[in-house]
Design goal:
2 helices; binds 2-acetamido-2-deoxy-beta-D-glucopyranose; Sperma_CUB_dom_sf; disulfide bond; 35% strand; 226 residues
Length: 226
């Protein structure tokens, strides 16, 4: 009876292990395809509710199709969250083909970016809880398009690693300030070491003859004043 039981339980264990590794493998595959595969332009609207993703008109090196109209809508889980869009590449036909970005779910929402050409746009943020992105191209000439990454955070830019996020508000450390704690309020320590100024109440107070945000400009320094 003993060996029989063992024999019976062994295939069961094997099956269990096999099933487990299958599940793990499936999870891994869906995880990889879900996070690493960028969503391409298909002339329709793609909706995201994830906290991170990549959007692009297509693989790099391949041109977007003529006459494109593609939309990506990113929805935050909580409308108090901030959606940030960061461009990695940008190449559209200057002043004919555009990437439009709206702070909201529709084209009536505030337009927070309209980009065309080859200069890489600055990172932009939507605070309404949704961001709508439109790629529009005319019927001529096409180019490589764009590739951008989005992330959804509780606080703007996760407080730039210079502060604490609480109830969707940044509380900045030290001399960091601004909505996302990305602003150094006393740059270069206001030149304290070279007696140009001092940081007081998160502001530079410059010594006589010095001016500028970091007290780095001197009256006698012609190049600095130009
Ligand atoms: C996100 O979208 C997927 C697919 O549309 C849906 O199954 C899921 O419930 C959504 N998640 C949340 C948290 O809304
Ligand atoms: C993309 O379009 C440009 C200009 O229309 C063309 O010069 C280039 O060869 C195209 N690239 C590919 C991969 O089709
Ligand atoms: C923002 O912070 C959260 C919580 O610490 C973290 O899970 C997330 O990965 C961060 N996102 C970015 C884009 O840094
Ligand atoms: C969104 O965040 C706010 C502030 O943290 C919170 O009061 C509210 O319950 C959240 N809403 C949802 C739907 O989670």
């Amino acid at each position: 009876m003993g060996p029989g039981v063992r024999k019976k339980s062994k295939p069961g264990q094997t099956f269990y292990l096999l099933a487990l590794s299958c599940i793990l493998w499936l999870c891994l595959v869906t995880e990889i395809s879900g996070t690493l595969q960028p969503t391409v332009c298909t002339k329709s609207r793609k909706v995201f509710n994830s906290s991170w993703g990549i959007i692009t008109d297509g693989p790099s090196g391949s041109n977007y199709t003529q006459d494109s109209h593609c939309e990506w809508l990113i929805r935050a889980q909580n409308s108090s969250q901030v959606i940030t869009l960061k461009f990695h590449t940008m190449s559209t036909e200057c002043s004919y083909d555009y990437v439009f970005v709206y702070d909201g779910e529709s084209f009536e929402s505030p337009l927070i970016g309209s980009f065309s050409g080859k200069s890489q746009p600055q990172q932009i943020t939507a605070t309404s809880g949704a961001m709508l992105i439109l790629l529009y191209s005319d019927t001529n000439y096409v180019l490589d398009g764009f590739r951008a990454e989005f992330f959804v955070t509780n606080c703007p830019n996760n407080c730039s690693d210079h502060g604490m996020c609480s109830l969707h508000k940044c509380y900045c450390q030290g001399t960091w300030g601004g909505r996302d704690c990305g602003l150094e309020l006393c740059p270069e320590g206001c030149g304290k070491d070279s007696h140009r100024g001092e940081c007081k109440m998160n502001r530079c107070h410059c010594a006589a003859g010095y001016s500028g945000q970091a007290c780095s400009l001197h009256r006698a320094d012609q190049t600095g004043n130009k």
